[in-house]
Each structure stands twice: as C-alpha cells, then as structure tokens.
Amino acid sequence: MTHPHATPSRRALLGGGLAFTGLGVAGLAGCMTSSTMDGDGGSLKGLVGPNDAVVAQVEAARGTPEATRTFALTARRTEIDLAGQRAATWAYGDTVPGPLLRATAGDRITVAVRNDLPQVTSVHWHGIRLRNDMDGVPGHTQEAIAADGGTFTYDFITPDPGTYFFHPHVGVQLDRGLYAPLIIDDPAESVDFDKEWVVVLDDWLDGIMGDPDTELETLRRNGSGMIGQGSEIAYPFYLVNGRPPADPETFQAAPGERVRLRIINASSDTVYRVALGGHRLKVTHKDGIPTLPKETDAIIIGMGERYDLSTTVGDGAFPLVAMAEGKSGQAYAVLRTSASAAAPPEDVQPDELTRGILWAPLLSGDDHVPRGQERAGDKADRTITIQLGVRGGRYVWTMNGKTFEEADPFVVSRDEVVRIIWQNMSHMPHPMHLHGHSFRLTDGGSWHDTVLVGPMGAVAAQFVADNPGAWMMHCHNIFHAEAGMMATLGYRA
Ligand SMILES: [Cu+2]
C-alpha cells in the first residue's frame, strides 16, 4: 500500500517506520517471553464480566428508549448467483448481504437469531457501543448459539447514530455471506441529502474457490512465505452489495441530487481504494461519527471500517470502483442519472483512483464528541503499547509477540483515559478494531472503532474507559484474527 501525503503533525504516525526499522519480524519473535497460557484471551479473573451488575447499570444510564425495534434473523445455508455462477454459502436468509436493519439513536433493538448452520455462531454488532453481554463474542460475552436450531435474542440500546454492520464472531464465518448493514439514524441529522446509497464491499471465495475454513487451513499449511506481498488471498470476486462486476448493481438518481454513500468494508482480507468516476467525494463520517468534512477523490478503507461520503451527482452513468489494494481485481457498481448514457466498462479505473486519497490517519475530528468521551483528549492515565507482528515463518499473527490463546488481557480501570499505540512491525496493513468503544486518534484526528494501521506504521488513539465489560481488540483481517491477532481488553472489577 502506498502512503498518501500526510500533514506534518501526523506524519510521524504514518508508517515512516523509522523507529522500527531495526526490528525485523524474526527479531520480534526472538524476544518473546514465555506466555502464561491461560486459555483464550487470558483469564477474566478479577475483571468485570458480562453478567456483572455494572453492565446493566451502565445500560440503564443510557436512558429510556423511545422505541423498540424488533427484528429476526436466521443464519442458514443457501445459494447465491454471482453473474451466472452458483455459489453455496451461509447467509442471513437468502440474500448477501443480509437484510439491512435500521433504528434511531437511543432506540432499543431486539434481534431474535436462529442458527440453522452446521456450526455454532453468534452475531457481533460491529461498532455499536452496547452493553457487554450483547456483544456477541462466544466464550466471553455469551454461550455460542448452538448449531442446527439454536436461538438467542439480542437486546440492547443503540446509543449513537451512524453506519454499522453485523457479522458472526466465530471462526472465519464472516468470510461467508454472513454480514449485513445496520444503520442508526440521527434525530438531529446534519447531512443534507436526497438519496442514500448503502455500499457493502466484500471479497468472495465461498462456494467458488473452496470455503473460508479450508482457506485458513491452506494459509496455515503454507506458513507466512507469502507475507510481504501486501495480501494473502487472491479472491475470485470482489462484490458491491453481493454482486460481481459482470452483474453490477445500478443505483438510480437524478442529476444534481445530493447522494450520501455509506461505504462498509465487510471483506475478510481486502483493503480497497474507492472512487466514484467523475465526482469528488466529501467525507462526513468515519465509523459512524462525524469528521471535519474533507473533500477527496478517493478513500482507502480497511476491513471493518465505514465511511460516509456525500456528493452532488452529475448527468450520465458513473462507475463506483473499489480497487483491491495489492491485488488485481475490483468491485464495481454503477451510479446512473441518465437512461441513455452508456454504462462504463466493468474494468474501468477512473482517474480519481490515482489523485488525492484520504484514509483514517489523515482525517480530522470536528467538534462532535461521542457521549461520555468528553475527557478523551486529556492526559492519558494509562498507555497500552501493542506491537503487531508475525511469528517468523508461520501463519501466526501476534500482539506483543503473543497469540490470543497465549495473551493475558489488557486491563483498564473504569473512567480512566486510555491511550493505545499500535505499532505495526509487519509488512501488511492491519485494521485494528476495538469492541464496545470509539477512540479518537491523537493530535486532532477523527473517531474510529476500526483503524487501518499501515505496513510498518503506527497509530495512537485515546478514549475514556466508560463501558465496563470484557471486550475484544483484534485485527479485522479475519484470518489474522483467527491466527492469533486478537486480545481481550478488560475492566478491573
Ligand atoms: Cu491483520
């Protein structure tokens, strides 16, 4: 991945790698200490658990919901059509993505989930600052939902407006068709728009090139010999809203209308560069939270990240292209405002892809501060430094040299200001995701729940520890997470 132009104040964080060049990947593995082997993510002894009274107390303090939205999902085997090729997969119902769920900030939502899959599953509400016991992490916040007919009802308040999505937190199930958007509307919406286009990006192999479980086995068997190539899996398809370029989605609008794009990267192993041919894009939100509006030609979006973009559309038929970074291939859809204009070819690469580019560390925050995070910019009470690495020669991804199974939790105390510094010691980008919280990048950056840490780069972020519970912090490359790059962030009881 290339590094776009940075402002001097944050350049130091952006993958210059100067401070880290002395430490090769193998060198990092060499200085590991032996682990305590407590089991997955370490013991939660002495930490707040999902069923502790404080979790319900914090939920009650979120206020009395004005409305309850009730949904149902069934995870099951199905078959989808990819431009004429049939692919057997697992999905929420018979569509990929699954059904869009929508509520208003402050609402209570309940989702009755039935699992008709042959494996256990769960649903994680990615980016929502919700009560810990509804976070959907088996072994940590709930029992897994049993295979072949198990059920579980999620029930929680959605405190913040924004663009989110949901997916299982079991194995590499996310790399099947098990994902869908979750939009939380803002009663005090600041963006003026005529039409909304929800754009879910995905890298697809299931039912075409084996399945994700087999793929993970292959990666483990081959070791990390391919690491450094920028990507590991060459997917046969890159999708916009479940459709490959040969059978693209067409979004209709009228010339001059203001369109809000909600871009969600639900991929497992693919970072994209996204542009809309013939248009400049204004970034208004990152991971659901307003940013200082900034115009750009293209954005770079890592797995698990979301961008809200707005633009005034021209007259014609325009390509929306998500180019897979470090791979060949792209996702593609069409924005059409004229019935007569010819559709652009599916392999078009609009000039915008190579002009100005924005990505997470280049965004700035505006005045908006998520509720409870007013002190996030204060001097940190605690700093957690995390080196992201790979264990030499093997497909084993680590945080501070340890895998999820080996690591103890990172421990914070309630109400303290926590600084996290992610230092990427590898040559692959890692989109780092923290459950149940949003964090602000230091030096005036924007708010995120998932931030792309570039190859050999570093990112520093702060937040107020205001949501007690046991939370996952992990790379949103789902194969990296499964191969060890995951840890627990716990609250001292
Ligand atoms: Cu990673």
Give a structural overview.
By secondary structure, this protein is mostly beta strands. It has 3 domains: 8-58 and 369-491, Immunoglobulin-like, CATH 2.60.40; 62-185, Immunoglobulin-like; 195-362, Cupredoxins -  blue copper proteins (Immunoglobulin-like, Sandwich), CATH 2.60.40. It has 5 helices and 31 strands. The strands form 6 sheets. It has a 6-stranded mixed sheet, with no helix packed on it. A 6-stranded mixed sheet has the order 11-19-18-13-16-20, with no helix packed on it. A 6-stranded mixed sheet has the order 22-21-24-29-26-27. Strand 1 and strand 2 form a beta hairpin. The longest helix is centred in the middle third of the chain and has 11 residues, at 212-222. It is globular, with a radius of gyration of 21 Å. The protein binds copper (II) ion.
Quick summary:
It contains five helices and 31 strands. The protein is mainly β and 493 residues long. The longest helix has 11 residues.
**Sheet with most strands: strand arrangement:** 10-9-12-17-14-15
- Alpha-beta classification: mainly beta
Shape: globular
The structural domain count equals: 3
Q: CATH architecture of the largest domain, please?
A: Sandwich
Provide the CATH superfamily of the largest domain.
Cupredoxins -  blue copper proteins
Task: Note the topology.
Layout: H1 8-11, H2 25-30, H3 53-60, E1 68-82, E2 85-92, E3 101-104, E4 108-115, E5 124-126, E6 150-157, E7 162-167, E8 180-185, E9 195-204, H4 212-222, E10 237-240, E11 250-252, E12 258-265, E13 272-276, E14 281-286, E15 289-296, E16 298-301, E17 306-312, E18 317-324, E19 330-336, E20 357-358, E21 382-390, E22 397-399, E23 410-412, E24 417-424, E25 430-434, E26 439-441, E27 447-448, E28 450-453, E29 458-464, E30 470-475, H5 478-482, E31 486-491
Parallel strand pairs: 1-4, 3-8, 9-12, 11-19, 16-20, 21-24, 23-31
Antiparallel strand pairs: 1-2, 4-6, 5-7, 7-8, 9-10, 12-17, 13-16, 13-18, 14-15, 14-17, 18-19, 21-22, 24-29, 25-28, 25-30, 26-27, 26-29, 30-31
Bound molecules: copper (II) ion.
Copper (II) ion is lined by residues 397, 430, 475, 477, 480, 485.
